């Protein structure tokens, strides 16, 4: 029975995938707890119990619930959003170099947010507080969409080959980075400090309100990607084949890119630039468990969250008492990992 | 029984007419070769049959129903398509490639039945040794077989292929076309764009000859003759008979 | 094979990192309830601050300088990392500040480190209300924002900053005395030039730091020394353009050709950019300038180094006055006056060190 042979191979393969999920999920929990236990205001295990029973003192409560928990959730949400955005962009553009950062969408979002910070007059009619924060996010999203449509336009005009997409991404990110510098050049010193402070990817900036807004964007977007996982698998067979498999190719590509840009903008507009997560994590996961999107998307989400949690722990401990912006850590770790992947795998040999 | 019917189908790319009015009927349980010179509109016709393109004029009917009005998911259960030599961009295993063919039958995640079917098809096509290998690591001939397996997993009465043999060595050409012929005998309707007239004459049951965007001739492959080929390809053609087999020398 | 290697490498990193979690526990300093009072900061925020403030954390550019001006450096408990290696007069006057514990690199701070510190209050400059509210909310420390101001358009901001900090730090008298010292100095300068009827000379200020040291072409609209000396600055023509596009930035980077075209009678170069402009000066184009030929190129003390050095600005004004109006300022010994000013601002005699560091008030011919 040769079919049995296939079944056996498939089971082994599935077991490998499940093992990955088990390990990745365990690591997510371990790093989340490690993140909870890391920081200058060290707390013992019994202190934790006291605080969670509601008997902590003011400072303990503040550290755990106002500082650390939002920060950890920010890491989880950002890691998840950036890495699955990268995975989806790679998939729908059928391009190994797709990621919010390489396609210039992070930079576009950063420009949008800088613009709103630079000209608060434009949004000053709004009630203060989280609605203004929302306006910053909306500006970030609007410009992220601009970047996204530029990439889609270029992909349509010249084909989505790695070279074309990378060139378009370089153009977009350079342009938006230049526009952001332009804003900085003219900003008065207070706004300059705000923009510079904000451009560094730093997870300590977010509040609970930011997290609610982000979660209400990122989680539905993730659900959409998960629901359409089989269509991404079909898309990977080629546009025409995907079409004949019942997938509305143009619509799926457009909606996916827009949603991935939206998720990216939701993160970038609050925490600033966090590079390499969206590029490297999907590649690592794909290498470990294969390219089936049904597994790839959730595995990428878990691994991305774990990666950013770990990077954040490093950022907080490596030169303590000074905390590095986490964007520096992700780049310093991400760049060599990507180079390793480039050398060890055929990243650049993939055809479109 | 008429499965796919074209009525005066016209198509042009931004002002450049490709098909100027094709009327043709593909019958059930036939294996039709769509023949013609480069640029005669073979691939365009194939993509029209699949509704990847929509004709500017004329109609296509699937079992009497205009395909323009059919739901994409329904169409995907009727017509499978194997595009010309396409290697997936991102690493995917052979199993997952074939499983993608089950897409129109899935609601979300593949069911046990979907996986069972993939296992059986892979075994039937003698691909079990490669089931968990990445498709990029296979040879062109093996890949073509995997794509055919994907089309079979789609469980459609009709399979359309664009130049399935273009990159294959003679052994794999024979293997692939023999398999397609076998499928026709088992009830499938197959439409295939192909360059090689001799392969078409040997394996197909019917042919459709395109020239300058029109259907110049159609019928059972036995009706292909040297005069027709000379008219289409504009080169001298000789006919050779060897036993029961007919060859055309260009 | 490589796959396994790679995954073990990846997980290796993860495990190493996650194992450095729970540090040995140390009891968190008990936060005693201190009496508080409510004050309003420069942004109109109401901030509840302890009645007695003994531990200040100055955040962002210039905050520490203002505190030093008020002679309250002894109340500073933490500094930004960047202060450790900065060359500025306030650290020459109070070198012990460099030895204080560090919070943040500069510009921003991890709220958790701030929360667990014994800081009573954060004094911040160049901060928006949203940032200040966020930091205060997270760290639980009052964040008091002052506008750093300047000496021309935003002079009142600067004075308000000094005076509000004076009240906060129990240094009101000192704040008032500083304000009147500056006011007296400026009016003395203005009194001297009042009857100057010779047509206003044109002068150019270059080498102003802007995101780090810059060369000759980095200038500033409404440079305070020029403003108070009635010196016409061709750069001020840029101000209209800046206002038109709504740019709040007063530092400006010019085209070298524009500087050559203006050909100002005097060129003053900010010592912060000396390493850059001393190489530019020897170029033939600059050598051909009227100011170069007439030996009217001078170095002045850094104006915008870690934002505005007000004490340097006053010294520069006396020096520039003496160069441009020699008769009016004939009785002034620039170095002596500068030493007095700096002594007044910091309460210590550090002018020799300032002079050694910046080599100001020197004529440059652009020769090697």
Describe this protein's structure:
The complex is a heterotrimer of chains A (352), B (250) and C (368). Chain A has 14 helices and no strands. Chain A has 352 residues and is mostly helical. In chain A, helix 3 (58-92) crosses helix 12 (277-289) and helix 4 runs parallel beside helix 6. Chain A is globular. Chain B has 250 residues and is of the alpha/beta class. The longest helix of chain B is centred in the C-terminal third of the chain and has 16 residues, at 170-185. The model of chain B has no long low-confidence stretch (mean pLDDT 90). Chain C is α/β, with parallel strands linked by helices and 368 residues long. Chain C has 16 helices and ten strands. Chain C has helices at 2-19, 63-69, 89-93, 111-116, 129-139, 155-168, 172-193, 224-229, 237-244, 256-262, 274-280, 284-287, 290-293, 310-324, 334-346, 351-358; strands at 36-40, 46-50, 56-59, 121-125, 143-146, 203-206, 218-220, 251-253, 266-270, 297-300. Chain C has a three-stranded parallel β-sheet with strand order 3-4-5, with helices on both faces. At the A-B interface, helix 1, helix 9 and helix 10 of A face helix 2, strand 6, helix 3 and helix 4 of B.
Task: Name the descriptors.
heterotrimer; A: 352 residues; mainly alpha; 14 helices; C: 368 residues; alpha/beta; 3-stranded parallel beta sheet; 11% strand; globular
The number of helical runs of chain B is 8
DSSP strand tally of chain B? 12
Q: Strand sequence of the main sheet of chain B, in spatial order?
A: 6-7-8-3-9-10
Strand content of chain B: 25-35%
Q: Any chance you could write out the topology, listing elements then pairs?
A:
The complex is a heterotrimer of chains A (352), B (250) and C (368).
Chain A: H1 2-37, H2 45-52, H3 58-92, H4 105-118, H5 130-158, H6 162-186, H7 189-199, H8 208-227, H9 229-235, H10 239-244, H11 249-271, H12 277-289, H13 293-317, H14 326-344
Helix pairs in contact in A: 1-13, 3-8, 3-11, 3-12, 3-13, 4-5, 4-6, 4-7, 4-11, 5-6, 5-11, 6-7, 8-11, 12-13, 12-14, 13-14
Chain B: E1 2-13, E2 16-27, E3 31-36, H1 42-49, E4 57-62, E5 65-66, H2 72-78, E6 79-82, H3 94-100, H4 112-124, H5 140-153, E7 158-162, H6 170-185, E8 189-193, H7 197-203, E9 206-211, E10 214-220, H8 226-233, E11 238-242, E12 245-249
Parallel strand pairs in B: 3-8, 3-9, 6-7, 7-8
Antiparallel strand pairs in B: 1-2, 1-4, 4-5, 9-10, 11-12
Chain C: H1 2-19, E1 36-40, E2 46-50, E3 56-59, H2 63-69, H3 89-93, H4 111-116, E4 121-125, H5 129-139, E5 143-146, H6 155-168, H7 172-193, E6 203-206, E7 218-220, H8 224-229, H9 237-244, E8 251-253, H10 256-262, E9 266-270, H11 274-280, H12 284-287, H13 290-293, E10 297-300, H14 310-324, H15 334-346, H16 351-358
């Amino acid at each position: 029975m040769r079919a049995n042979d296939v079944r056996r191979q498939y089971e082994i393969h599935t077991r490998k995938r499940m093992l990955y999920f088990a390990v990745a999920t365990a690591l997510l929990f371990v790093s989340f707890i490690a993140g909870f236990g890391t920081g200058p205001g060290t707390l013992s295990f019994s202190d934790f119990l006291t605080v969670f029973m509601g008997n902590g003192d003011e400072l303990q409560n503040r550290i755990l619930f106002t500082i650390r928990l939002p920060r950890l959730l920010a890491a989880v949400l950002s890691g998840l959003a950036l890495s699955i955005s990268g995975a989806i962009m790679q998939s729908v553009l059928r391009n190994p170099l797709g990621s919010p950062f390489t396609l210039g969408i992070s930079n576009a979002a950063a420009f949008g947010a800088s613009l709103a910070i630079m000209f608060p007059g434009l949004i000053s009619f709004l009630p203060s507080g989280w609605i203004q924060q929302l306006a910053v996010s909306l500006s970030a999203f609007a410009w992220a969409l601009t970047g996204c449509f530029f990439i889609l336009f270029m992909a349509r005009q010249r084909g989505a080959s790695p070279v074309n997409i990378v060139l378009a991404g370089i153009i977009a990110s350079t342009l938006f980075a230049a526009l952001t510098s332009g804003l900085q050049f003219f900003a008065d010193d207070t706004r300059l400090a705000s923009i510079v402070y904000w451009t560094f990817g730093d997870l300590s900036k977010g509040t609970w309100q930011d997290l609610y807004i982000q979660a209400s964007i990122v989680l539905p977007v993730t659900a959409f990607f998960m629901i359409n996982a089989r269509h991404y698998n079909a898309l990977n067979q080629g546009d025409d084949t995907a079409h004949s498999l019942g997938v509305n190719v143009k619509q799926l590509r457009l909606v996916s890119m827009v949603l991935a840009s939206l998720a990216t903008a939701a993160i970038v507009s609050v925490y600033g630039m966090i590079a390499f997560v969206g590029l490297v994590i999907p590649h690592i996961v794909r290498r470990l468990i294969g390219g089936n999107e049904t597994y790839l998307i959730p595995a990428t989400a878990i691994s991305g969250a774990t990666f950013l949690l770990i990077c954040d722990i490093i950022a907080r401990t490596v030169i303590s008492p000074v905390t590095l912006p986490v964007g520096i850590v992700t780049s310093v770790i991400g760049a060599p990992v990507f180079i390793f992947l480039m050398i060890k795998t055929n990243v650049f040999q993939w055809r479109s | 029984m008429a499965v796919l019917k074209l009525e005066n189908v016209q198509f042009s790319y931004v002002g450049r007419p490709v098909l100027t009015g094709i009327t043709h009927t593909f019958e059930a349980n036939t294996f039709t070769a769509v023949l013609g010179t480069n640029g005669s509109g073979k691939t365009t016709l194939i993509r029209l049959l699949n509704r990847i393109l929509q004709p500017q004029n004329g109609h296509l009917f699937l079992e009497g129903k205009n395909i323009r009005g059919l739901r994409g998911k329904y169409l995907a259960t009727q017509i499978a398509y194997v595009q010309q030599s396409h290697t997936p961009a991102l690493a995917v295993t052979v199993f997952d490639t074939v499983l993608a063919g089950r897409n129109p039958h899935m609601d979300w995640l593949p069911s046990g039945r979907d996986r069972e079917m993939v296992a059986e098809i892979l075994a039937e096509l003698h691909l079990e040794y490669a089931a968990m290998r990445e498709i990029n690591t296979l040879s062109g001939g093996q890949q073509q077989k995997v794509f055919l397996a994907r089309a079979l997993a789609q469980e459609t009465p009709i399979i359309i292929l664009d130049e399935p043999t273009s990159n294959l060595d003679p052994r794999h050409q024979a293997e692939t076309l023999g398999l397609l012929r076998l499928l026709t005998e088992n009830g499938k309707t197959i439409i295939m764009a192909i360059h090689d007239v001799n392969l078409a004459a040997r394996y197909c049951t019917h042919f459709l000859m395109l020239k300058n965007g029109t259907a110049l001739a159609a019928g059972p492959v036995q009706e292909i003759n040297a005069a027709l080929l000379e008219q289409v390809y504009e080169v001298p053609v000789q006919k050779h008979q060897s036993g029961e087999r007919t060859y055309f020398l260009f | 094979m490589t796959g396994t290697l790679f995954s073990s490498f990846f997980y290796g990193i993860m495990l190493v990192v996650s194992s450095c979690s729970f540090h040995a526990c140390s009891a968190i300093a008990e936060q005693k309830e201190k009496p508080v009072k409510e004050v309003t900061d420069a942004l109109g925020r109401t901030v509840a601050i302890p009645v007695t403030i003994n531990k200040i954390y100055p955040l962002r550019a210039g905050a520490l300088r203002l505190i030093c001006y008020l002679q309250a450096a002894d109340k500073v408990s933490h500094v930004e990392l960047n202060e450790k290696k900065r060359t500025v007069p306030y650290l020459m006057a109070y070198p012990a500040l460099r030895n204080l514990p560090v919070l943040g690199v500069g510009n921003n701070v991890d709220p958790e480190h701030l929360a667990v510190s014994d800081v009573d209050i954060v004094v911040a400059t160049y901060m928006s209300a949203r940032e200040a509210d966020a930091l205060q909310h997270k760290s639980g420390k009052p964040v008091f924002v002052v506008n750093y101001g300047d000496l021309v358009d935003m002079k009142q901001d600067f004075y308000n900053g000094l005076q509000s900090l004076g009240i906060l730090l129990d240094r009101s008298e000192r704040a008032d005395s500083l304000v009147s010292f500056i006011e007296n100095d400026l009016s003395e300068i203005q009194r001297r030039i009042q009857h100057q009827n010779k047509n206003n000379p044109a002068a150019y200020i270059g080498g102003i730091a802007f995101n780090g040291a810059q060369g000759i072409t980095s200038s500033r609209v409404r440079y305070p020394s020029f403003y108070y000396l009635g010196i016409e600055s061709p750069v001020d023509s840029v101000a209209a353009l800046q206002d038109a596009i709504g740019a709040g930035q007063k530092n400006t980077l010019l085209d070298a050709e524009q500087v050559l075209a203006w050909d100002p009678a005097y060129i003053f170069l900010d010592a912060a950019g000396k390493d850059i402009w001393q190489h530019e000066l020897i170029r033939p184009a600059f050598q051909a300038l009227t100011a170069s030929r007439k030996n009217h190129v001078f170095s002045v003390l850094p104006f915008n180094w870690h934002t505005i050095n007000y004490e340097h600005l006053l010294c520069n004004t006396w020096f520039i006055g003496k160069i441009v109006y020699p008769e009016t300022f004939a009785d002034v010994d620039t170095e002596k006056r500068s030493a007095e000013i700096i002594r007044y601002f910091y309460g210590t005699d550090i002018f020799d060190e300032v002079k050694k560091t910046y080599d100001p008030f020197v004529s440059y011919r652009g020769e090697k």
